[in-house]
Write a structure and sequence with these properties.
The complex is a heterodimer of chains A (about 110) and B (about 120). Chain A has about 110 residues and is mainly beta. Chain A has no helices and 11 strands. The chains are: A mainly beta (about 110), B mainly beta (about 120).
């Protein structure tokens, strides 16, 4: 069945890079997403990558996809205290309506 | 920027009572969704809705759940007889088209507490 796994916590110092990892099981996944959730807020789509891509960069964010290992990572360069949040990895198939989420990684940024 | 809104932000109810969670999707969106997140667990898909009917639903979405778009703006989730295990954060989302690359805009959620 479909499953998305990610580690629950990550703590980094301000200015360092953060790397949040995710694995998924559905080999039919076509789109892979990273969402950010701040306290009391909804789910904000940060970025997504197609399964035929290896990497996508968007300002401070770099997404790496290893399709063979079904491994996705999100790298945040120069992490700021404002990046403290929960980051959800998610996937979906082409033409499908639902998105499958991981449990979320809580990122703590120490000043 | 347009946003999805949800009311109430927190709902407390007694077990066995009916609750209706309300959402106002973004006005030109056509696809609507409900997800839930039990504390400390994953965000789980419940149901998607298009053209006034359910397009997909999960195993969680049993006969106790129903959705409705009663007018041109609201999208509701009804739980007929709440159970303790229905306590969760419920997120509404909307999207302009069915292509999965289109961004789903999520609301801030309604925290449902069943006592």
């Amino acid at each position: 069945g479909e499953d998305v796994e990610q580690s629950l916590f990550l703590s980094v110092r301000e200015g360092d890079s953060s790397v949040i990892n995710c694995t998924y099981t559905d080999s039919s996944s076509t789109y892979l997403y990273w969402y950010k959730q701040e306290p009391g807020a909804g789910l904000q789509l940060l970025t997504y990558i197609f399964s035929n891509m290896d990497m996508k960069q968007d300002q401070r964010l770099t997404v790496l996809l290893n399709k063979k290992d079904k491994h996705l990572s999100l790298r945040i360069a120069d992490t700021q205290t404002g990046d403290s949040a929960i980051y959800f990895c998610a996937e979906s198939r082409a033409g499908g309506f639902k998105t499958i989420f991981g449990a979320g990684t809580r990122l703590f940024v120490k000043a | 920027e347009p946003e999805v809104t949800q009311t109430p932000s927190h709902q407390v109810t007694q077990m066995g009572q009916e609750v209706i969670l309300r959402c106002v999707p973004i006005s030109n969106h056509l696809y609507f969704y409900w997800y839930r997140q039990i504390l400390g667990q994953k965000v789980e898909f419940l149901v998607s809705f298009y053209n006034n009917e359910i397009s997909e639903k999960s195993e969680i979405f049993d006969d106790q759940f129903s959705v409705e778009r009663p007018d041109g703006s609201n999208f509701t989730l009804k739980i007929r007889s709440t159970k303790l295990e229905d306590s969760a954060m419920y997120f509404c989302a909307s999207r302009t088209s069915g292509r999965t690359t289109d961004t789903q805009y999520f609301g801030p959620g309604t925290r449902l507490t069943v006592l």
